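Following up on my earlier thread - several people asked me to post the actual chain instead of describing it. Fair enough. Here it is, all 260 residues.
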Amino acid sequence: MRVLVVQHSSRRRRVLLRRGVWAGGEVLVTVGLVLLLLVAHQLWWTNRQAREGAERKVEALEREWERGASEGEGGGGGQGGDSGMAAAPSPTEVPRRQPAAKRATSAAPDWSRAYAILTIPRLGLRVPVAEGTSKQNVLNKGYVGHYRGTQQPGRAGNFALAGHRNTHGEPFRYVNRLGKGDEVEVETEDASYTYVVDRTLPETSARDGGVIRPVPRSGVRPGYGYSEPGYYLTLTTCTPEYTSKYRLVVWGKLVSMRPR
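Reply from S.P.:
Thanks for posting it. Predicted structure:
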């Protein structure tokens, strides 16, 4: 009769293998939980935090403007014919009358400071506009950022803005739903400007600087854009969703301005 002999070295190897598999499983589970928490932080917490901060900033701007308006009225501010709606100037016309302003809208506001409110009724969106497109100081706060070097609202040229499509408030999450004729309002301390969506560029290179030029026209897809001076609004965001590979662009034209 044969007697099976179990070598202790073989038994130890099996024990070590089981321990290694168990330890590896624990590591994978831990890594999975950490990744899940990171995803939850990016997709939920950053959105909640940024949206709450953006809402507070909108309310703060409105209170600031109301106080300024009250002080202006108390100091004998006029209520004459300029208080009505003014038609947008033609593309080549220099406006004969600009809203009376405590701070000229043509002057660049303080860097990274929120100074306007963007409202898009179609999307139920109302967010602050800040100077610059820094992620840390502007975009990650849930704000929309004004491209440095582009025009200010209501002025001849191109008022160009950027915003996150995903995470950090994602104000431009559904900007792709905008269509021709949708209104976009930009409010400043001095006036309210209404633009109407005119054209959309579904996808272009992230380096396509032509879309934010004074006369916006894609340098990558020349069939998209304009060829004449005007009063333009440009909204840009990342596409496809959850990536930053390409840019989605929405253009609008100024149709009216109303002094505050």
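The helical segments are 8-74. That should answer part of your original question.
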